[in-house]
Amino acid sequence: MNPFESIPIGDQGAEVTRLGMGGVFIAGRGSADGGDTPAYDTSLATIAKAHEAGIKYFDTAPLYGNGRSEKRYGKVLGGYPRDSFVLSSKVGRVLVPDVSDPGRWEVDDIPHLTAQFDLTRDGIMRALDEGLERSGLDYVDILYLHDPDVEDMEDAANATAFPTMIELRDQGVVKAIGCGMNQWQMPGRFIKRFDLDIILLAGRYTLLDHDAYPEFLPLCVEKNVKIATGGPYNSGILAAQDLDGPLAFNYEQAAPQWIDKARALKSVCDAHGVDMRAAALQFPLAHPAVASVIPGAATPAQVVQNVELIRFEIPEAMWSEMKSEGLIPSDAPTP
Q: What whole-number distance in Å separates Cα of residue 297 and Cα of residue 237?
């Protein structure tokens, strides 16, 4: 597979490379200490390596590192011609001062912030404007509504968030709009109601989890809505070299049935000399609805590795065996 092939999104000129880069791991998901966030210089070097390698689609959000992902992307990407990359970000949460943990991220030159939901028109505009201010970039290409299901805010999404985002697209402020979620049912209702361009779907159409395959992916094809696959490793279980240790799936401890299935998938991969991570990145990309896969990367070496995994030639016999063993749908498109 060509990781740098560009796929059009919508009809306003947005394009994404088949391999993108998620912005969680360069700055932390949003915890006060950033968890396992890499050092600042490593984060910047990771972004630069991705652009240098040929990745031109970068995804971020105010929630990621509570502003630090946006700052770090802007620090690096701001040094390149603006038409040499596509940036997606998210609205639906705004950042406010963290009164429980006052202080400042000195290296990023921003105060400690915390995220709160706001799907009003003013909240959507504020999230976009403040994100651009943090990054120092002129515009965002793709704008997602972020996790409206977390606090059951579907009504607010319908009433104010999407109408505002459609207005932004109509005005040319952004080129494409959609939503980013860890489930497909609510995005399915959204794309029936609104003219959306792309869904960032995390974890629901992967080598391991095919929950979105029977209903949602055909709906996306019908509505001409593209999918960016987030979480292609399902929180790490598909990237684990040791499937006997503690494993995560869908951001929590993996249940036994998912571990057993991952072991079965790895056994087939091993039999054909294939790194399961390559299969995990390539599998969703074979579906016509899927435009891009956006694994996170925390180091330059991981960026290079992701490129190599996408390029790895996987024998058809491996996919056939997975289908015959019922590990992936029998009619699923494969590379």
A: 16
